[in-house]
Amino acid sequence: MGNNKKDQAKHVAAKEVNNVATQKHRTEREEKQKSQGDKVVKWIFAVLVVLAVIYMIWSMFIV
User: Which of the pair, 17 or 45, is modelled with greater confidence?
Assistant: First the structure.
């Protein structure tokens, strides 16, 4: 790094750009994980409801 202001300004700008890029990547990853987590929860509840219905039908025919 040089001592002149031009070199220091370039360094600060690059650091800020990298910081913004990292924050953007982090927020995108969090949104993606949230949407995938919502899908997984919906699938789990759907499977549990289907199993409950199958158990109800099975118990009606057994008893």
Answer: 45
CA distances from 42 to 13, 32, 35, 46, 47 (A): 44, 16, 11, 6, 9
Q: How far is CA 11 from the centre of its chain?
A: 32
How far, in Å, CA of 15 to CA of 8, rounded? 11
Supply the mean pLDDT for the chain. Answer: 84
Contact of 17 with 11, CB cutoff 8 Å: no
Determine the distance from the C-alpha atom of residue 20 to the mean position of all C-alpha atoms in its chain, rounded to a whole number: 18
DSSP 1: -
- CA nearest to 1, candidates 43, 39, 54, 12: 12
Residue 18: predicted pLDDT = 77
